[in-house]
Structures are given as C-alpha cells and as structure tokens.
Design a protein that fits this description.
Radius of gyration: 21 Å
Strand content: 15-25%
CATH superfamily of the largest domain: Metal-dependent hydrolases
Shape: globular
Number of helices: 14
Mean pLDDT: 93
Distance between the termini: 26 Å
Largest sheet: 8 strands, mixed
Helix content: 25-40%
Low-confidence stretches: none
Number of strands: 18
Number of domains: 2
Length: 411
C-alpha cells in the first residue's frame, strides 16, 4: 500500500470545542505514522484538504448488523446465507456514513468478523459480543404467549440476536462458548425490551446469581459484561453485580447515574431507535405488541442524557437500529446535540467508544500508531452536527486502514 500524506487538515476528534490548526498526517501501511504541521514525505501521494475537517473514523458502539429485518423474531428464521448477504449491505452503508468501526452487541459471529477484515465488500471493523444471553421469556425469546413449544436453540442461527440460557450453569456455559468463539465481551439481557413479546419494560432479566456468573466469566477472560437496561432498578442491580457497559438507560435516575459513574461504568444511549421505531416501525413490520411499548422509553430519552451528564457518567455513541431503519444511524448525533455540547457528542463516537471497544489509541484518534481510519468532512461539525448525517453526503473522503473506500472531488 502506497504511503499517503494528507495536508492542511483541521482535526476534530471530540477532545476540544474547536478544530485544530492545520496539520499534516502521514500514513504508511494502513497506520498513521506522523501528525504535525511540518510532516513531509517525498514518496507519498498527497491529498490536500485545504483546511477541511479531518476526523477519526466514527464508531457506533451499539449495532446489530444481522438485524436485517425490523421483525427480529422473523429475522431469526432467515437462512444464514441470506442474512450474511444482507448484513454486508448493512455494514457497507455504515462505512459509507463514516463509521469505520462498529460494536455489535448481539448477533454477529466470527465468520462475519473475519469476512469484514478480508474485505469482499468494504465494511467497518467489527467488535462483537457474539450472541446475547437471555433467560426464557426475556428479551431474546420471541415466542408469543400462545407458543408453548419448547424453545429451539436459536443461538446458532446467524439472524438470531441471542440465545436462551437459564440458571447459573447454563449462563456460564453460554458465556464460555461465546468467548471461545471470539467474543470481545459478553452481552446479557437484564431488563424487559421493546422488540420482544412477553417481557414488559419493568421486567428484570436473570437472577443476581446469573448476572454475577456472567460477570465472573467475562472477568476471567479479561473482558466485561454489557447489559440491555432501561429502568433504574435494573441498572442499579447490574452495576452492583459488576456490569460495565449499560445499554440504553432511558429510565435512569440521578441517584443511579451517580452510582454507575462512581463504579466507572459506561452508558450507551440509543435514542434514535425509539424515534424511528415510533415513526417507521409499524410500516416495516415491527410487531404491534412491540409498538405499544415504545413510548414507555422514548419519552424519557433526552432527559436521560441530561441526568447522565450531570452525574458525570461517561456515554458512548449507539444507534441500535433494525432493518431499513439502519439508514438513520447518524441521526443520533443531531438528537444528542439538542442537550449536549457538540464536542461531547463527537467524543462519544471517537475516543470514548474506542475505549469501550478495548481499542483505545488504535481507533477513534488521529495519532501515530493508530489505524488510518479517517473521515473528511466539508464544514465544521462542531457548529453543525447534521454534517455527519445525510448518508455521508458531506464526507468526500473516507479511509479504512489507509485504503480509500470513498473519494469524491474536493474543490
């Protein structure tokens, strides 16, 4: 791979509330080698940004790339070959929006991870939990109340977001199997959910002993547990059990937010999914019983951001979209910008998300030694976060590992 010198770049990475002064960035072999105003190279191809914005590749810390249908129960019945093909279409669109890394919190397997690196179709880096763990009747059990057939083990169908396990022994085995198959962390469903038919939002998933077992297995493997959570009661219980990554958190309270912050946990709000499930879900096949649950969490979304900011609880970027609604992935920037400073919103999708992926210093930054995952933006996202939306409309150049995956003329 030929060396590349990017010149006259104004960096925005979420660490400051203004762009940097113009710098040059030297890329060799897919890695950033030097950053500075005086960096030069005689052999590298030169891309002059003319003081345009240069950002680290964006990171979405809550996706389901195999959720190719809004109806998750039906999605789990699709053949793996079809889910694979549709998943790569989903991932390629994410990359074209500037997301060069995504953290899959339920569904993707090791095969998709390897294929994303081999690059038959350009896709983001994939950091994944494997199948999410759910109890019977929990957020990954899509059998309706009239379905009394024994649960089929859905954990091995690619389209299934999760697998069912009950009791400490089954939770331990499931966690160990996912880690053995390359999971970077463990995901559990510790609260009721919108998409599943038999668990109301207040529902507490798993007994404490089961959560503690998952946390111990993750810790033994040098990683952590991520949990699907909405209510303050569920969040407090999870934090007390050692859960590190708190997904959604719409119904969090100030007291619990402070507890989570003190424990060093990280929250991953996903407000855009509730907006789009409410507006688009019914016409895209989202089940009526699930539509009825949406406002229970949607209406508290912006308030939850304010509560978590006041408590000092770190927040990473997440979208959690399904099926055709993946197209709204970047709208989360604008939603969060209604209550949070722009540089903090950007930080959630750069260095904060990188740390949650256990890839700090390698992604989410523009610094020597990092992957050359880079996005050029026409304009200043600190002044207008909508520049990060529009399906990459305002991104004339996107790099993943030093390879240019999108390039449009820059006048």
């Amino acid at each position: 791979m030929a060396a590349t010198l990017i010149t006259n770049a104004c960096i925005i990475d979420g660490t400051a509330d203004r762009p940097s002064d113009p710098v040059n960035v030297l890329i060799e072999g897919g890695t950033i080698r030097e950053v500075g105003a005086k960096v030069r190279s005689e052999k590298a191809r030169v891309i002059d940004l003319k003081r345009r914005t240069l950002m680290p590749g964006l990171i979405d810390a809550h996706v389901h790339v195999v959720a190719v249908s809004a109806n998750l129960g039906a999605n789990a019945e699709l053949p793996d070959s079809l889910v694979t093909a549709r998943s790569f279409k989903v991932m390629n669109a994410m990359l074209m929006r500037g997301f060069t890394t995504v953290r899959d919190v339920g569904g993707a397997d090791h095969g998709l991870e390897v294929a994303a690196e081999e690059g038959p179709i350009p896709a983001p880096r994939l950091v994944r939990s494997g199948k999410a763990l759910s109890q019977t009747g929990g957020h990954c059990d899509f059998r309706g109340r009239f379905n009394d057939r024994p649960a089929i083990q859905t954990g091995f169908r690619l389209g299934a977001l999760g697998r069912l396990c009950d009791g400490v022994a089954e939770v331990r085995k499931a966690a160990r199997e996912e880690i053995k198959q390359g999971a970077a962390f463990i995901k559990i469903m510790a609260n009721g959910g919108v998409a599943s038919p038999t668990d109301p939002i207040h529902f507490l998933g798993f007994a404490r002993e089961e959560i503690l077992a998952a946390v111990e297995e993750a810790k033994n493997a040098g990683t952590y547990v991520s949990a699907h959570l909405y209510t303050a009661e569920a969040i407090q219980r999870a934090v007390e059990c050692g859960v590190h990554s708190l997904e959604h958190c719409n119904l969090i309270t100030p007291e619990v937010a402070k507890l989570a912050a003190k424990a060093g946990a990280v929250a991953v709000p996903t407000l855009v999914t509730y907006e789009k499930l409410a507006s688009d879900g019914p016409k895209l096949g989202f089940p009526p019983e699930s539509v009825a649950k949406i406002d229970n969490v949607r209406l508290k979304g912006l308030e939850s951001l304010s509560i978590m900011k006041a408590a000092g609880l770190t927040m990473a970027y997440g979208s959690d979209l399904l099926g055709a609604m993946h197209a709204y992935q970047s709208e989360e920037f604008v939603i969060r910008g209604r209550v949070l400073p722009a540089h903090e919103v950007i930080a959630s999708a750069t260095h904060i998300a990188a740390k949650l992926c256990h890839m700090e210093g390698r992604i989410g930054v523009i610094a020597p030694g990092a992957h050359a995952d880079l996005v050029v933006v026409d304009g200043d996202p600190l002044k207008d976060l909508s520049l990060l939306t529009g399906q990459g409309r305002y991104m004339p150049l996107i790099m993943r590992g030093g390879a240019i995956v999108k390039r449009k003329a820059m006048n």
